[in-house]
Amino acid sequence: MNTLGLSTLLRLGCICGSESIDINGIRYNVKDLLGEGGFSCVELVEQSSTRKKFALKRIKCHSTEDEKIASQEITYCKRLKHPNIIELVDSCMKGSADPVVQSISEAFLLLPYFKRGTLHDYLALRSFSKNYLDTREVIRLFSDICQALKYMHEFSPEPVAHRDIKPGNVCLTDNMDPVLMDLGSCAPAKVQVCGSQDAQKLEDVAAERCSMTYRAPELFHVESYCVIDERTDIWSLGCLLYAMLYFKSPFDIVYERGDSVNLAVISGNIFFPEETPFPKELHELILFMLRVNPSERPFINQVIEEVNHFKRELDTSV
Fold this sequence. Notes:
The protein is of the alpha+beta class. It contains 10 helices and 12 strands. It folds into 2 domains: 6-112, Phosphorylase Kinase, domain 1 (2-Layer Sandwich); 119-316, Transferase(Phosphotransferase) domain 1 (Transferase(Phosphotransferase), domain 1). Helix 4 runs antiparallel to helix 6 and helix 6 (231-246) packs antiparallel against helix 9. The termini are far apart.
């Protein structure tokens, strides 16, 4: 979470004063600030009548373009129905973004509350004592995340790419099932780039909405004439699997050293710890996904095929 600024302190002041919000005629009381990013914050809220807890995502919109992006996220949340993709409970838009009179609108997305938090939180706790996940647990979680992506990549009438797969965007249910969240970066799976303006626009969007240490190489420097497809998610998926093994993306380590993530990503050199509790097949699966050239990278069904093959080998080794 970012350092608390004045706006956050004011928000916390509202929380202390039990701010309440009306969403489509139902009142919710704000209980806590769960997280804050560059475009939104997420609060823990409680429905006044039932005392049931939810997570409320609030997106500030400073322009009609911001409103369009927020509305698109709501649309994706409504359309994508899968047990491993977050459910939208309710939503609304309040106010009107008008830069001339400096007014701001706000989008509200009411979501389920996961008290276990995110996969990032879970991995961070285990990292203190290097308490590695069991290989079977890694495969179980990863397999479910793959199924959510398969659903998105094969969605009809138009396949969808998530574009920001990372542990912080995977919630964990009480039963430790993964739920993919934050659909604000979602986009049509295939994007035709026609010229330098298109390329620069996509590059800028990726820089804003796709986390650097999980971002595919083709989104760092978008070619002027190319097709970007859903295999951007496969790269991120490879980084996520690495993090499930060793608590961080391979490029988080580069970032923390102060080296260039961009150059590290383009080089495609992935380093694994010499001492590891995991079988080499998991390293091979990661390298299968982390191919710099997107045309050589697998699609989600190929990844699932490899995961299922590894599952069968695990079962026969018992």
